[in-house]
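Newbie here. three chains, one complex. Structure please?
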Amino acid sequence: MFRRHDKSSQANGDNVTIYFEDAPIICKPTDSVAAAVLLSDPGYTRRTPVTKAPRAPYCMMGTCFECLMDINGVENQQACMVPVRDGMKVRRQNGVPVLPEDSKEPEND
Amino acid sequence: MTDSADLIVIGAGPAGLAAASLASKHNLSIMLLDEQAAPGGQIYRNIEHNVTHESEICAILGAEYAYGAALAETCRASDVTYTPGATVWRIDPDGGVAYSVDGAAHTAKGRRIILATGALERPVPIPGWTLPGVMTAGAAQTLLKSSAMLPSGRVVVAGAGPLAMLVTLQLIDAGADIAALLETTRKRDYFSNAMLLPGAMAGQDYLRRGMAMRRAIRASGVPIYGGVTELEARGDGQVSSVRGRSGGERLTFEIDTLLLHDGVVPNIQATRQVGCEHEWYDPQRYWRPVRDSWGTTSIDTITVAGDGAGISGARAAEYLGQLAALDAACRLDKINMADRDSAARPIRSAMQPHTAIRPLLDGIFSPSFTTPHGDDTIVCRCEEVTAGEIRTAVAQGVMGPNQIKSFTRCGMGPCQGRNCGLTVAELIADVQGVPVSDVGYFRLRPPIKPVTLGELAAMDFSETDS
Amino acid sequence: MFGAAIAYGLSRAGVDTLMLDGHDNNLRAARGNFGLVWVQSKGKGLQRYADWSRESARLWSGFAAELTDITGVSIAHRNDGGMMLLLGDEEVEKRKIEIAEMSKQSGATGYDCEIITHADIQAYFPDIKLGKAVTGASFCPHDGDVNPLKLLRAMHSGFVNSGGRYKSRCTVNNIDHANGVFTANTQQGQFSAPKIILAAGHGISHLAESVGIDAPIRPQRGQVLITERIQQALPIPLNGVRQTDEGGFQFGSSEEDIGFDDGTSLDVVQNIASRAVQSFPQLSTVRLVRNWGCVRVLTPDKCAIYEESISHPGAYVATSHSGVTLAAINARLVSKWIATGEQPTDFNHFSASRFHVQAT
């Protein structure tokens, strides 16, 4: 859906790799997760909780919540607001999130 | 822990940067909170990186964009405490601010707050606007600014407003394959608003640039269609074509990306949440906070500056930020009123050409998609509520946006009505035959952005000195 | 909620009914409701009200089915019991004393509510882990919940579908009474009828006074938190935590005596969030999407007032918080009382005159 500009300094230099649905995407440390995923022609990036309709990033500035994805196992994150980190594992948000399996219980009472 | 400051500025776009920079010269302790990773707001997004690393992208974005570098630099050089990546999710009338950075919630207390939260693109509720591959024009521009990216396939830009034209031109320059610019604005909108020209003489520079953009788009071979109606995105799970009608002509373009735009509106999430009074601005059909000539709202501790106070553009935003800063300095006893007023005079006259053009622009680019034509079009993207469901509820006697919200869930999703609030009010007004100003708006509750329960539970309210 | 339920019942019974409603931004307890059909905490000091709440809970299943049937709106009613989670031994001990008191008060009727253990509670919730802080709960089989917004919508459209007339933005300023006819004077003109029911929540006191009924109510704020949608994990509601049919976890609710302020405050939000995370630690990464304040309509003993005016026969007052719990009985028995004069047993217990006895 999107490509890097040919003459961008970002066309070379330091790269990081993230994984979208297990496929590697080579991107820049300054990219947001949503931007990086758009480089990979993802089709859609989430299904809605109500009708399971496919959606993809819409506003790219944190207002529309269409870019919700599962990032490193944490669901429903605004991918356009999260910078990429090397090795990140990103998945489509599939409707309603499930509860995280593992959780640290606070040690207070 | 609760940090304290004389002044908390929220938003590091032109208004926030200018406000924080000037206020710091008046010996105020200042916290500048911004959601993005770097200063510049949306208009000068990623400016610091681009001016040093991306000469080609800067060339595409032009001198108006490059102008923002100095604003960021001045603010960086000041003793403003700037926190990037700070998502503000709650504001209180007593100057309290709650925000999150890297998954941890913080609270702060300002003697005053300047809200410089800018603008949002107006919703464009056409059939198919939720399909993957349909984005806002601003989103494409953001990708260009923040990641030097452009659409890889065939693109149509559709809608109205100066940004639609600007993005079209920038994408052409960047090498994108633009099939057409479909403008909903009609030729006669340009002519009928020409009578506003005398008032806009001071803004002639804007007009010249607008004309030049239009010529440049045409010269590149990209067709511009005017007065486009019946705009519709189509596709099976992803956009594959856009249709419309221009004059007698039916238009269909096979595309990979559709970029929509219908102007920008003030981002009033924060001013609504904290409880400022708002007024309806009819020429551009949006709500804006009621404010005095310094930007101070109906809540005495809270001032708005920039597009969040009413759309007036990036350059005016900078001056509005400075005015807000002077008023803050005065209210916090750093300068007297006479000094404030004399310092404001040159700012106001410098701002004049940038605000003088507004009535003309507001008239030419009056919004095109205020009420969806069909009943199947989605209005609330989050909860998937259609125009038909809203019309039905209103016909059954539902009185206003808040009852619509509780009856249909429209506006209850995570975006908190950012993408449907205006459309809902317009639909109610349309069905009831009353002005939108009588219909009102959603009651916006905190949090302004979602925040985890774990963060809330871990908050520490003990006070520190900044 | 009171007004809508009674009006719905009247209109279903074929009574020509006009429902006058205020403005979109009025203080509305009905829109802030938590959604519990709740019995275990009701009627301390007034056994008739405890029985009344339980009777309503019993009527609820039929009522919910009827609403869905005639409006097509599914209101997500559940009646498989409910729990009040108790954190720490102190809360358990306190609750045990309350249960003993209520058992004594309810006599032969019984107060079907018992303390259950951490393990018992966990067994109800296989899909979510209970926090260590939870030391017990009081369980009542009559408790349940409903989607309160869908309920309101369903009653509203059921009312309209049965021929009821609804007028919004129509605040009643005052009421005249002459020749057996009541006239409500509103900004949209005058409306007359031989009977008038006052169920105006916070707006009720001055109207009630004009028909000779003293309806002393006071505001009490409750703050509520709701999260993003999450996969279903709470099959039954808890007092203070429930999961809506859409998936949002809802937490509440505070009891704050601060007047007619329906705002929110961060300290209360933190308390509620902290209790939520202690109860269910997995919720700590779940996001809050909205937090609101809602002002309860409370009578001095927190029980309902139902009363027909002696000086102005044909004028009725019906008010309380617990509008959701009582919706079924309001739609059935209260509307019948107003339509036919047929009084439920010991109905005089609900007269506001009980407050004057206490006052002197």
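Moderator note: The two ends of chain C are 32 Å apart (CA to CA). Chain C touches chain B through 40 residues (CB under 8 Å). Thread marked as resolved.
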